[in-house]
Write a structure and sequence with these properties.
Strand order of the largest sheet: 2-1-3-4-5
CATH topology: Rossmann fold
Strand content: 15-25%
Structural class: alpha/beta
CATH superfamily: Response regulator
Shape: globular
Distance between the termini: 19 Å
Number of domains: 1
Number of helices: 6
Radius of gyration: 13 Å
Oligomer: single chain
């Protein structure tokens, strides 16, 4: 079953690549160029899942996720953080903000597919 996945990243190239991967996996991709636009887009479209970069201008991914988790309309939307940072501090902050997972850049289709399935269809993801 096709799901809507919001990709929030300040890099147009990353948004395009991840959107293509999401579509190849059979889902609908929508994109936003920073955390503020990501919050606004999530409130307007209520996606099934969000892939959120951490370091972005205007509003970073941690702050954007905190806003989403504080709003009753978007609190239940799973957020996977997507970054090239991957430090213990980033992972801790991501979890504290309400993140449901963590992916490192660059990403391959298989890794992205596993992460999406684990969040959106946990029964199918387990062996």
């Amino acid at each position: 079953m096709s799901k809507t996945i919001l990709i929030v990243d300040d890099s147009a190239m990353i948004r395009r690549i991840v959107s293509q991967l999401v579509q190849q996996l059979g889902h609908r991709a929508i994109a936003a160029e920073n955390g503020q636009v990501g919050v606004e887009t999530a409130l307007a479209t209520e996606p099934d899942m969000i892939i959120m970069d951490i370091e972005m201008p205007v509003l970073d991914g941690i702050a954007a996720t905190r806003q989403l988790k504080a709003d009753q309309r978007t609190t239940g939307i799973p957020v996977i953080f997507f970054t090239s940072l991957g430090s213990e501090e980033n992972i801790r902050e991501a979890k504290e903000a309400g993140g449901n997972g963590f992916l490192n850049k660059p990403i391959c289709k298989e890794e992205l597919g596993l992460a999406i399935n684990k969040i959106l269809d946990p029964d199918a993801a387990s062996p």
